[in-house]
Write a structure and sequence with these properties.
Strand 2 (60-65) and strand 3 (68-72) form a beta hairpin. Helix 1 (6-22) packs across helix 3 (44-56). This protein has three helices and three strands. It is 53% helix and 17% strand. Strands 1-3-2 form a three-stranded antiparallel beta sheet. The protein is globular, with a radius of gyration of 12 Å.
Length: 76
């Protein structure tokens, strides 16, 4: 696997912050909007990758396969 670039890790951090702040349902379109609002010029492929990473880490839970939709995980 390749090392993330500074821009990619910054996008990841900003998207994670948005997910933690706003919660709710997340798809690629919402992720793109959140990244644009944070001042990035995101690409769909990278945004989908970040959402999958956040799901792997347990911050998001995949609730739909097509179209892909995630929901923030419930806090204990």
């Amino acid at each position: 696997m390749t090392e993330p670039t500074a821009a990619t890790s910054s996008q990841r951090a900003d998207l994670e912050k948005a997910v933690r702040t706003y919660g709710g349902h997340w798809d690629t379109a919402r992720g793109l909007r959140a990244l644009r609002d944070a001042g990035h010029s995101p690409q769909e492929k990278n945004t989908r990758h970040i959402l999958r990473e956040l799901a792997r880490e347990g911050l998001l839970v995949k609730t739909e396969d097509w179209p892909v939709l995630y929901t923030t995980a419930k806090k204990d």
